[in-house]
Specification:
The chain is mainly alpha-helical and 115 residues long. The protein is built from 4 helices and no strands. It has one domain. Helix content is 81%, strand content 0%.
Amino acid sequence: MIKLSKKLIDLITNARTNVVQLANTSMVITYFEIGRMIIEELQSGESRAEYGANLLAQVSKDLTQNIGKGFSVQNIERMRNFYLVYSNSSKDLRNSELFLKSSYELRISENSVIL
C-alpha cells in the first residue's frame, strides 16, 4: 500500500468515527431535551403531571406518527427520567474542576489537529 493510500484510509476512518460520535452525542442531547421539555413545559416543572400517563401516551402517539419507531411511552418515560436524574448533576459536573480541566485539554487537542 502506498503512503498516500494509508493517509487517505486513516483520514476516512477518523471521519467516520467522528460522525458516529457526533451522532451519538446529538441523540443524547436530544433525549435530554425531550425530557426537559416534558418536565418544564408540559408538567410545569413538576416531576409528575397529574395527567402524566395520558400526557406521555399522547406524546408517544404524536411522535410515532410523525417520526417513526423509538418513541413508545416507556421510552418517553426513560427520556423524562434521564432529564430528572442528570439535570442537577450536569450543572455540578459542568462547574467542576475536572470538567473545566478536561474541556481545556480537549480544546487544545482539537486545535492541534491538522486537516
